[in-house]
Predict the structure.
Amino acid sequence: MKLFRSQRNLYISGFSLFLWLVLRRVVSLIIQLAVEMEGHDAWKTQVENSNEAAKKYMEDNEKLKKILNRGRGNVGEKEISAENEKLKCEIEKAKTELTKVTEELTKSQAEVGALKKQSEGLSREYDRLSRQHDQLQNATDSSQNKKDE
């Protein structure tokens, strides 16, 4: 009987350690997912700000084109063309920045999706192992009851 109790205690402590490791991993994955979701929100606001800046630059460019088309004269034409070139460069920079940010956003969304899938897989595996442990525990309990009788 003493051997049975010590063996039972050994199995319980082993399962407790395993359960602790699984729970620790699940908690770390949840924390990592929360951090990624915060980053996702930050990227989203940055993309929105970039879109607003690009729209502003486009409006400024349109205003300058209208002023140029009105024909203010040949005196400031070089300055206007230089300003137009400068604005075009800024627009191109804004567009490239916007594409970079959108690519990073899609990448972070893919990472979040992968983490969710991994978390779901771990949950399913944990549930399966828990059911298996319960079945084995019931089987050992029933075999011990038969031996005791």
Summary: Residues 15-41+48-136 form one domain. The mean pLDDT is 89. Residues 24 and 79 are 64 Å apart (CA to CA). The chain is about 95% helix and 0% strand.
